[in-house]
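FORM 7B: Structural annotation worksheet

SECTION A. Query
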Amino acid sequence: MLCDRCRRASKTSSIISRVKSSKSQRDYPRALVAHHGVNATLRRLPCVTTMAIEDGVYDTVVELRPTYFLERKRRASEQRTSPAPIGKAALIILNSPLTDIEYFRRLHAHSSFCICADGGANRLHDLLTSGLPNSRWQEGLKTALPELIHGDLDSLDDGVRKRYEQLGVKITHDPDQYSTDFGKAVKVALKRVSDAKDVLVLGSLGGRVDQGIGLLHELYREQKQKHPEVRFWLFSEASVSVMLQPGTTLLHMPLSGGLIKRNVGILPIYGPAQITLKGFEWDVENWSTEMGGSVSTSNHIAADQLTVTTDKEVLFTVERATNR
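SECTION B. Predicted structure
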């Protein structure tokens, strides 16, 4: 959707000269590129929206880099070279098993706000103190203190609560039984980081099936119905997942970085869809996909850039490499 400035620019032919992107091989109107910040930093950002021209018609192309948050980086709040970090992110820790501390630290480094959803504080506590003698628990927790612990607090361990309170972490109670701890955490996080562009959800799809499906349901609801201006990313034990909106998405998927594996899926879990895939081992064109019908699971990355065009929301998921 074009903003007012871009809409005005699109009607003034004298300022719509085209600029060629050497990597994506797409044409972008220069005026829109300049306004929306599509420049040399494009491939270093998690998401950029550009406007491609074909036969005089503008088509919104969303460019995503799923590996972005897996890369090494200092925490956004510690960035001193830029007064206003581009694309602030909030990190939500769910009450799911956490075993990969490097995985967590990379996500934490990319966030400007970290919140534990109720029992997520127990999981983070255990992860950060693992391998340390009990006398050094403060040392472990201080390496990554959350800004907030929030929820109905029925899962928060008393001992864990006391330790975090001793270190000055704020703990807030929301007794509402008509919303989940995840929903509560999203609401608070986006109030605290009002200019957040991404929400990183560190959780699990393993364990109980109903909880896993429930999490995917909530991701859809938050993304589609409540916060369409924010992109939600699910970082589970083995995968990185994100919902792709109707239209065209260009995914930058460099296997050379060793952060992801070649296994991907495009899942129509939110309803039947018509999709076109390019850059995959098994490309399709105007292909009908739905649960109970044909589904693109265990597809493979065949190029550094993948293109997915869909008429309905689909879940894109890629297997992450471990021990990186």
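SECTION C. Observations
The longest helix spans residues 209-226. The helical segments are 4-10, 30-36, 101-110, 120-129, 137-141, 158-166, 181-192, 209-226.

SECTION D. Sign-off
Analyst initials: ____
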